[in-house]
Every structure is written in structure tokens, then in C-alpha cells.
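Model it.
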Amino acid sequence: MANLKRLQNKLDALALDQLREVAANLYEELEQTKAALMYAEESADFWRDQVCNMQEDLIRHNQENINQLSIGMMQTGELAIISQPN
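Modeled.
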């Protein structure tokens, strides 16, 4: 009976060690995900600001000039300023 109790205690300790390792790995993964999310949000904010600035510049340009320009997206995903046909 004592042997069974010792074996049960040893198995419990092993299971606890495994749970601690899994928890530590999950915590590390969570921290990495948080950092990636923060970077993605900062990047999105930067690009949103860039587009807003481009739009403001285009509005100013279009008010001052006959040539109408607008923001377009290339097939490659790049933003570009394009001239609108009259």
C-alpha cells in the first residue's frame, strides 16, 4: 500500500512538473503574441496616418489644380497617386 502511495505521489509530482512547463510555454507564447499584436497595431496606425496625410495633400492639390489626382492601389498592393482622366 505504501508503494502505491509513493508511486501516486511521484506521478502527481511529474504531472505537476509537466503542467508547470506547459503553463510557462503558454505564457511565453502569450507574451510573444502580445508583442506581435502591439507591433501590428502600431504599423496599422502608421499606415492609416500616411493615407490620411496623402488624402489631405490630394484634397489641397485638387482644389488648386485642374489635374485631379487620387489614391489608388497597384496590383502588387502598393499605394500610389494616380491622375484621374478629365
